[in-house]
Structure formats: structure tokens, C-alpha cells
Specification:
- The chain has 226 residues and is α/β, with parallel strands linked by helices.
- The protein has one domain: 3-Layer(aba) Sandwich (Rossmann fold), CATH 3.40.50.10320.
- It contains six helices and seven strands.
- A five-stranded parallel beta sheet has the order 3-2-1-4-5, sandwiched between helices. It has a two-stranded antiparallel sheet with strand order 6-7.
- Helix 4 links the parallel strand 4 and strand 5.
- Helix 1 packs across helix 5, helix 2 packs antiparallel against helix 5 and helix 3 packs across helix 4.
């Protein structure tokens, strides 16, 4: 079965951004690996230790393997050293598909999706995928080429390329999100639910999660089944 590698900048990014899809992948038998770059230690609420426990509880509920890296919160940069570090993580897990936050967000500082770490992570992963396949870049793990890079945290001004029907996994997604209780408020949870209703409505289902693909992907006949 295919392996999914999903990377996020902060402890709750993956669950808030694409948690229903991760649960769906795991339920369908995919091997799911969640990689979180920081412990969210600069967040207004919670501590690194609290947020680490929340990450572990959520990943266990989702049914995913979790790896926490040692990047510093609010200091993620797309540079050579960081690309090597992420490239070796990609080589270690050898995924077929990689998910990362979308690499560009032009909205204001008031938009939670526009955190600089999110865009930096998207760009970092995009460039690290190239490094991961270069045989002459010697790292701990051997060369690996990823099939597809898909972005979550789609900016509000962008039309998604893909919407995943996560209606059947909504209840479990809410449980995963609630693992991050140091960060969650009733208003935030309702906003996340409303977003999923909005994107679900685009494809005629109750709840959907949105994604963007920048690169061409092969047409699959399953797309045409109603």
C-alpha cells in the first residue's frame, strides 16, 4: 500500500489543515507518517511539552506515525541546511505522495494561514524533494524520488485543485482536533467545521478538505466514476 508523508510547521497544522484526509488515508490502509517541524514553543498558548503530548495523542488517534523535528518555531527558513534535513526525512520514509502547506499566502497578518512558517515549510519541502532525488547529495538515507507533491492550507483566494470527501470521518476528525486542547476554542472549531462544509458543498458532499497541485498529474479513470 502507498505511503503518505505529511509535513507541518506546528503541532496542530496537519490536523487543522487536513486531519480528515489523514484519518481517511489511514482507514483505507495507507501508511501515514506525520512530520512536524517545531514544537510550537512560540505560540501564545501552551508549552512545548504540552503541545508535544497533544501531537502524540492526536497521531495515535489518527493511526499515523509521528516524527517531531528540531526546527525553531517562527524561525523556519528555506535554506540549504534545512533542505538537506528535510530531504533526508523524505529519503527515510520513502513516500509515494507528500503533503505540505501551500507555499504562498498574500493575505494579512490576521489570517492564521499566513504564518511565515507555513509558507517557508511549503517552499522548503518543494526544494527538499529535489534534493532527495539527487544521488550525489550524500545523506544518511539513499536517494528517493517522490511521485506527487500536494499542498494543503489553501489560501482563501485560491480555487482548490482537489477536494477530498471526508464526511464519513468528520466525528473522528473532531476528536483529533480536540487533542490540541491548549490551542482550540469553540470559535476556532466552528470555523474549521464551516470551512469543511463550504468545500464539501463544492463537490456535493457534507464535509470536504481542499488541496492544490501545482504540477501535472496523470489522469485516473477513477475520477470519472459518479
Amino acid at each position: 500500500m502507498a505511503r503518505i508523508l505529511a509535513l507541518g510547521a506546528h503541532p496542530d497544522d496537519l490536523e487543522f489543515g487536513m486531519g480528515g484526509s489523514l484519518i481517511k488515508f489511514a482507514d483505507k490502509g495507507f501508511e501515514v507518517v506525520m512530520v512536524v517541524l517545531t514544537k510550537g514553543e512560540m505560540g501564545t498558548k501552551g508549552t512545548a511539552n504540552i503541545r508535544t503530548k497533544e501531537m502524540r495523542d492526536s497521531a495515535k488517534l489518527i493511526g499515523a506515525k509521528l516524527e517531531i523535528l528540531d526546527f525553531k518555531d517562527c524561525q523556519i527558513e528555506d535554506n540549504y541546511e534545512s533542505r538537506l534535513k528535510i530531504a533526508d526525512v523524505i529519503r527515510k520514509y520513502r513516500p509515494d505522495t507528500v503533503f505540505a502547506p501551500y507555499h504562498t499566502n498574500e493575505f494579512s497578518h490576521k489570517d492564521s494561514l499566513a504564518h511565515p512558517d507555513h509558507a517557508a515549510t511549503g517552499n522548503l519541502v518543494r526544494h527538499a524533494l529535489r534534493f532527495a532525488k539527487f544521488r550525489k547529495i550524500e545523506l544518511e538515507h539513499p536517494q528517493h524520488t517522490v511521485g506527487t507533491l500536494i499542498y494543503y492550507m489553501v489560501p482563501r483566494q485560491k480555487v482548490p485543485t482537489l477536494i477530498n470527501d471526508v464526511s464519513a470521518y468528520h466525528k473522528k476528525w473532531v476528536e483529533a482536533v480536540k487533542c490540541h486542547k491548549s490551542q482550540l476554542t469553540p470559535e476556532l472549531l466552528e470555523g474549521l467545521i464551516m470551512s469543511r462544509r463550504f468545500y464539501g458543498n463544492m463537490i456535493g458532499v457534507e464535509y470536504g478538505e481542499q488541496f492544490i497541485v501545482d504540477e501535472p498529474i496523470q489522469m485516473n479513470m477513477e475520477m470519472f466514476k459518479v
